[in-house]
Design a protein that fits this description.
The structure is a single chain. The protein is an all-beta fold. It has one domain. It contains no helices and seven strands. The radius of gyration is 14 Å and the shape is globular.
């Protein structure tokens, strides 16, 4: 069963792309062996029709990754604030679903 986490994490990304290569969560470093999927979200989420403007769009890049222990995680890079990107660990995935 997937487990929602929703915590901010520290991520080291590849030098030439925003793809993660390792991340630290709760003091433990996870080395990423595979990026299983990647997608971009520029939608409006749950905002009502009257609130939808270009400035209220999400600017996120989601990754599903596998670490050296075989655990799978979904995380996203929030790049709405170009001066300071933020990474969040969304959930730990059931290995049978990936």
């Amino acid at each position: 069963m997937d487990k929602f986490i929703g915590e901010k994490i520290d991520v080291e990304q590849a030098a030439d792309a925003p793809r993660p290569v390792r991340f630290t969560w709760r003091g433990e470093t996870h080395e990423i062996t595979d990026v299983l999927s990647e997608r971009v979200d520029t939608g409006f989420g749950a905002l009502g029709r009257c609130s939808r403007r270009w400035s209220t769009r999400r600017h996120r890049r989601y990754f599903v990754v596998r670490d050296t222990a075989g655990d799978c995680f979904e995380m996203y890079l929030d790049y709405a604030d170009r001066r300071r990107y933020t990474r969040f660990l969304v959930k730990r995935l059931d290995a049978g679903k990936t």
